[in-house]
Every structure is written in C-alpha cells, then in structure tokens.
Automatic annotation (TrEMBL):
<protein>
    <submittedName>
        <fullName>NAD-dependent succinate-semialdehyde dehydrogenase</fullName>
    </submittedName>
</protein>
<dbReference type="Pfam" id="PF00171">
    <property type="entry name" value="Aldedh"/>
</dbReference>
<dbReference type="InterPro" id="IPR029510">
    <property type="entry name" value="Ald_DH_CS_GLU"/>
</dbReference>
<dbReference type="InterPro" id="IPR016160">
    <property type="entry name" value="Ald_DH_CS_CYS"/>
</dbReference>
<dbReference type="InterPro" id="IPR050740">
    <property type="entry name" value="Aldehyde_DH_Superfamily"/>
</dbReference>
<comment type="similarity">
    <text>Belongs to the aldehyde dehydrogenase family.</text>
</comment>
<feature type="domain" description="Aldehyde dehydrogenase">
    <location>
        <begin position="21"/>
        <end position="480"/>
    </location>
</feature>
<dbReference type="InterPro" id="IPR010102">
    <property type="entry name" value="Succ_semiAld_DH"/>
</dbReference>
<dbReference type="InterPro" id="IPR016161">
    <property type="entry name" value="Ald_DH/histidinol_DH"/>
</dbReference>
<feature type="active site">
    <location>
        <position position="257"/>
    </location>
</feature>
<dbReference type="InterPro" id="IPR016162">
    <property type="entry name" value="Ald_DH_N"/>
</dbReference>
<dbReference type="InterPro" id="IPR016163">
    <property type="entry name" value="Ald_DH_C"/>
</dbReference>
<keyword id="KW-0560">Oxidoreductase</keyword>
<dbReference type="InterPro" id="IPR015590">
    <property type="entry name" value="Aldehyde_DH_dom"/>
</dbReference>
Length: 485
C-alpha cells in the first residue's frame, strides 16, 4: 500500500469487538483521508449505537476474568504490549503521519511517549495499595481496599491519536478495568493498530475494544449505558459539556481533558533565547494543534522587541510540508475548518490593530497547509486572547506590570497549562501559585510525560492522567469496617 508498512497487518480497518474484527451491521463505511494530500488512506466502519452497545457487552463479559488476574499478571501483559509498540514504532508512526499529518519525527516521538504510558502503568498495576486506618472504636478495625471501577469508555480526539489512547487504556487495564474506545473519525488507524498489538501481547479478547463511527450515536450509548461506570474524554469543552450532561443519567465517573488557552509569559529577566526555543516548541509542535500548547504570549515591555525579532527569525526558518518529508517541521492542519479558525483569529486581531510579523496566510501548498504566523501588538480584546486557535499562530501581547499580567493570564474560563520564563526565584513561585491552571512550566515549553499528572482546572476539565494519580482515577476506594473483635 501507499503506507509501505513493514507489517501491513497493522493497518486494520474494522472495529475490534470482543476479539473479533467486524464491519458495521449497516455495512456503512467512512473514508479516512491523508490531510497532507487529501487522498483516501482507506475506510473504517461507520458504526452506530448497536456497535457501541455490543462493545460494551464484550467489555462487560471480559471484566470478571480480567479483574481477577493477579496485578502481576496484568502487569506482564501490559509490559508485552509496551514491547510490541516499541518494536513496531516505525509502522505506528507511519500510520500516524498518514492519518494525522504531523511530521514523521514527531509521530515517532508520540508513539514512543505513548508506549511509555503503557510501560508506566504496567509498573503501577502492582502498586494499587490500600490502607489501614486507626479505628475510632476499640472493637473495630478499618481497612481501605482499591478495586477497579469496571467497564470504562474512552472518546478521543485526532490531535494525538496514539498517546491519548495509551494513557487512558493502559491506566484502565492496569487497574483491572476493561474498555471501549471510540477514536476520532479522522484518526482511527492508530487506535486499531494499538488494539491489534494488545491482542498479540496476549491481552484477552474483549478487554480492549475499539469502535468507529457516528460520534453522536456512539457517545449517547457510551454515556447512557448503565454498564459503563466511567467515561474518559479528551476533546473540546463544548463536547465535554454534552457528555457530562448525558453521563448524569447514570452518574458516571468522568475524566475530562478539554480545551486550553495557555498563557506563555516572558519576564524582563528571562533568558530570551531559551524563551524563544520554548515558544517554538510549545506553539508550533503538531502545527499548534495541542490543548496544552501556548495560545497567548505575554512579553514584558523591556524584552518585547528582542523576543519578537528572535521568534520571527526562528518561525521563518520552520519548514512547512508533508510529514513524510524529513525536512518538514510543520505539517498541515487537520482540515478546512481548522484553517478557517486560524484565518478568523488573524483577521480579527489585525482589524483591531495587530501587525503580521511573519506568515499570516494560507500556505502556497494549498489544502490545509498554513503559514506559521507571528502577530505583534495584539490588543487585549482580540478573539485570540479568549479562544483557543488550535493552529500555528503566535499572538504577542505586551505587559509591564506583574499584577496586571496575572489578571490577564487568568482572565479565561480555561485552566489547563501555563508557561513562565523568568530567572527570579521569588517571582517564579509567586506566578506559579497565582496562575489558575493544572500545570505550570517554568523555563520549559514542553512538560507532559508518563510520570507527571496531566490535567486541568476550571473549564479545562476533571481528573488527571499519567503518574500515580492516573491509575487512581480508574480505582474505587472501598472502606471495610470490621467489628465484633
Ligand atoms: P476536536 O476539536 O479535538 O475535534 P471534539 O470535541 O470536536 O474536539 O472531538 C473530540 C472527540 O469527540 C472526537 O472523537 C469526536 O468525534 C467526538 N465527538 C464529537 N461530538 C460528539 C458527541 N456529540 N458525542 C460524542 N462524541 C463526540
């Protein structure tokens, strides 16, 4: 095929339910397109509620045996899954670049980082410790045990189609839960390949199911089916609200990783070169399509011109192109709608007085390619200060007063990530504590990995993924009171 996989059987194009590869009952399919070329890579079933329900039944049927394995046994199976992902990283990265568009090097980095979540949770599986609590009565003893939540569902987006799945699924499986995953329609192949490798690793049929198809119908089934005890969703705040509302009928546990509007703050005492490097990594990785990516740049008046000039230089050197070209550092956006949003934010800012320093237009390659863009003198009332662009646009705002800066940075309903560049230790602590986000990077532009708690506050979401907190989210606490002693 066009993908030139070493192992073409990793390119699965059917739903994975109860250990079987199956088409939709209706026979309907949907095309998966390569965003760089617009060409069809293949199709997947366009499933409906019935396929989602069947996958939930499969997850339910496999739960008792999976839950009853020794933690050590689940750990070994996860470890084998990790090994297979690592062994097949090149094919997985090829699939990822083809369906998502990111440069091959970034795809490979994502696959390896996704694998590290599996490795991490293989280790955490053995550490789901309970607790004993000194009892408040002489004839009683108090014990707390941890048990798997049960059948879980995951609804995932297209921007990190490998990592976002492994950090949910590996945590769930480590805890003893079984899962139904509904990946984004744009990027189903990464999810299906992961399911294939899980099966080869010996993870039993039905423990990990993947269904593709109608977002609304499947979402409704997964949120209202009483067998599903937890939903983990990554995507927009708009859809997160819908799923939260739908989940209320069965009072599901929820993990929501939603939108962000990360401020990237550069103080006058910052290492400007380091800040520029961090800014490029945080803003232009994945063509700006990351919920933790910097959305608003607040730069101190004293270093504003220097930062703008150096950032512009670096951004001009970025290479837009097809992700399979080794020279490419910025791939296409996922589609036409995404391009429209970047254009709208630029148009709005310029209309209100901003200047285009670099880029600003659709790229000459056409399709969903867009020029990496830097805007200066962006006014506070510009759309980009409130809305997530999700594209290669860095808008620079000017500040001089720390208190006003904190107020501006927190003036958003989002609270996912923030980045601060400063060498003043007092200031660093002041800002890190005052900023209303779940994650703060000091003098770094990238900070997510398997060992740390990823997640947001305010309307950016609920729960944490990765780290020991990540497995806790898939465990219930049971208090056992022993009396009559
Ligand atoms: P993004 O902007 O990242 O595409 P979305 O929230 O639109 O974010 O999509 C995230 C995931 O949620 C995708 O898999 C999408 O198909 C799915 N989705 C969109 N609408 C719904 C819905 N009403 N119910 C369930 N899932 C949905």
């Amino acid at each position: 095929s066009e993908l030139a996989l070493k192992d073409p059987t990793l390119h699965r194009d059917l739903c994975r339910i109860g250990g079987k590869w199956i088409a939709a009952d209706s026979g309907e399919t949907v095309s998966v397109l390569n965003p760089a070329t617009g060409a069809e890579i293949g199709t997947v079933p366009y499933g409906r509620a019935v396929e989602a329900r069947r996958a939930v039944e499969a997850a339910e049927a496999s739960l008792p045996a999976w839950r009853s394995l020794l933690a050590k046994e689940r750990s070994r199976l996860l470890r084998r899954w990790f090994d297979l992902v690592i062994d097949n990283q090149e094919d997985l990265a090829r699939l990822l670049t083809a369906e998502q568009g990111k440069p091959y090097r970034e795809a490979l980095a994502e696959v390896v980082s996704g694998a590290q979540f599996i490795e991490w949770f293989a280790e955490e599986a053995r550490r789901a410790y309970g607790e004993t609590i000194p009892a408040p009565a002489r004839d009683r003893r108090v014990v707390v045990i941890k048990q798997p939540v049960g059948v879980c569902a995951a609804i995932t987006p297209w921007n990190f189609p490998n990592t976002i799945i492994t950090r949910k699924a590996a945590a769930a499986l480590a805890a003893g839960c079984t899962m139904v995953i509904r990946p984004a329609t744009e990027t189903p192949y990464s999810a299906l390949a992961l399911a294939e490798l899980a099966s080869r690793a010996g993870i039993p049929d039905g423990v990990l199911n993947v269904v593709t198809g109608d977002a609304h119908e499947m979402g409704l089934e997964l949120t209202t089916n009483p067998v599903v005890r937890k939903l983990s969703f990554t995507g927009s705040t708009r859809v997160g609200r819908i799923l939260m509302r739908q989940s209320s009928s069965t009072v599901k546990k929820l993990a929501l990783e939603l939108g962000g509007n990360a401020p990237f703050i550069v103080f006058d005492d910052a290492d400007v070169e380091a800040a520029v490097e961090g800014a490029v990594a945080s803003k232009f990785r994945n063509t700006g399509q990351a919920c933790v990516g910097a959305n608003r740049f607040y730069v101190h008046d004293a270093v504003y011109d220097e930062f703008a000039r150096k950032l512009a230089e670096r951004v001009r050197a970025l290479k837009v192109g097809d992700g399979t070209d080794p020279e490419t550092t910025v791939g296409p956006l996922i589609g036409a709608e995404a391009v429209g949003k970047v254009e709208e934010h630029i148009f709005d800012a310029v209309e209100k007085g901003a200047r285009v320093l670099v880029g600003g237009r659709r790229h000459e390659f056409g399709g969903s390619f867009f020029e990496p863009t830097v805007l200066t003198d962006v006014p506070r009332d510009a759309m980009v200060s409130r809305e997530e662009t999700f594209g290669p646009l860095a808008p620079l705002f000017r500040f001089s007063d720390e208190a006003e800066l904190v107020e501006a940075a927190n003036d958003t309903e989002y609270g996912l990530a923030a980045y601060v560049y400063s060498r003043d230790i007092g200031r660093v602590w002041r800002i890190a504590e005052a900023i209303e986000t779940g994650m703060v990077g000091i003098n770094v532009g990238l900070m997510a990995n398997e060992a740390v708690p990823f997640g947001g506050i305010k309307e950016s979401g609920v729960g944490r993924e990765g780290s020991h907190y990540g497995i806790e989210d898939y465990l219930e606490v049971k208090y056992i009171c022993m009396g009559g002693l």
